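Sorry to interrupt, but I need a hand with the structure work. It will help me judge whether the discrete encoding reads sensibly. Write everything out right here, beneath this request:
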Amino acid sequence: MALNSINPTQTKAWSKLAAHFETIKESQMKTWFKENPNRAEEFTIKWEDFYVDFSKNRITSETLELFKELAQELNLQDAISKYFGGDVINQTEGRSVLHTALRSPADVEVILDGANVMPEIYKVKALIKTFSDAIINGTKKGYTNKPFTDVVNIGIGGSDLGPAMVVDSLSFYGNHLRPHYVSNVDGDHVNEILKFLDPETTLFVIVSKTFTTQETLSNATTIKNWFLKHGTQSDVAKHFVAVSTNTAKVEAFGIETSNIFPMWDWVGGRFSLWSAVGLSISLALGYENFDSLLKGAHKMDTHFKEEKFETNIPVVLAFLSVWYNNFFKAESEAIIPYTQYLNQFATYLQQAIMESNGKSIDRSGDKVAYQTGNLIWGEPGTNSQHAFFQLIHQGTKLIPADFIGFTKSLHGNLDHHDKLISNFLAQTEALLNGKSKAEVLSEGTKAAIVPFKVFEGNKPTNTIFIKQLTPESLGKLIAMYEHKIFVQGVVWNVFSYDQFGVELGKQLASKILNEFDSNTIVNHDASTSNLLSYYKNHRV
């Protein structure tokens, strides 16, 4: 069964929200805090090792009640059941969306087309564990009988961003294997990585569902040719493995059948790190840590599936995002993790969120007349404070932000961590309260400079405190955003799990590539034709 198609702006709850917005849109959050000493407690969700304070948002209890009404009108609970139940909610591609099954316990039944998918999932998990253990402990060696020292993941999009982000985020838990990620078809990218590799001790993981992706296959072929300058074709089998569904093409590349890890069409690329696409995670961190990541995600799955909406972390965060996007007309959201380990987290979420809900056609096939999707960007604090925070504090744009912090550091340097978290807390306080003209004057500021030092405040933030960055807590955090994406897609009445928008450019690129060595250029606009000619005349 597919998801319902309901225009959210035509619901009674949306009309109520619009009227409610008009009554509170100019209200000051700091006034609400003064009027209600319990506001912080009332707008905080405590769950496991997560402490989510959303009290610094331009909402009241009535706002949340109206969003609950909206959720009921849009049949959100039914949509959640279909999401976890294997229904074909990716209707345009005729697929279920079951990345949640990848992190479910073995004794859970997940039925798809009349069959339980869990035995197959755990069969692949066993392969990942056996292979990872053998590479890590050195029983599986390279063609000169040396143990492996480096692992290179070759993929793009979801086959790169997720695993690369996780491995970087959890580098504290890494083993002796050095991980590398090749994604961009830019030849300079792959050659820079190859400069530092020893072909005798490097394992290559090619991740491509169809084994036809241009970027991935180009990089894989370049790397294979580099490898063959040292080893033979028969040695390829010891150094190359693949995550793919296209067994024939993988074998033709020279990879043994035993070194092919399967994928499923019910797992979208940007949600695939939980599958064999995460093989590089298991290799770089060890299977136990990969498994902990999965278990953390499953805990968030259970919370999302079973918790009532008002204390459901992904649901509340999705409501807030819709509130700012559709009523305050905020176009972007900032993700600010106060840990350098999560320096790739916002980049990962850019794909997960913008590729999912960057849609302008609703589930009935009609053009939407309201905003969907939102721009995602960010950088770790405190670096970001010395970069774009000026815009958030004193710019003309409203930019809601998620602040993510950990109460305990990994290396245990309390002096550094106290300074980090003091900034973490200070920024959300400053964004809330701002700085009035009177306060600036009281500091003895010259009258001509006063306007430049006034901060409006009333800038919304969510504060997400987590006990410590572990594989399990990262799994929870990633899954939290995945489910937020789902709820937003339900509200906006779009299909979140296709990505047709990436296809047109690919098709045109193939056409243009063929014209580089042709004497004619046809069927392009004048600008593209001129640029193509310029490149052809200067490429060598």
Q: What stands out?
A: The mean pLDDT is 96. The domain at 111-290 is CATH 3.40.50.10490 (Rossmann fold). The CA atoms of residues 103 and 298 lie 5 Å apart.
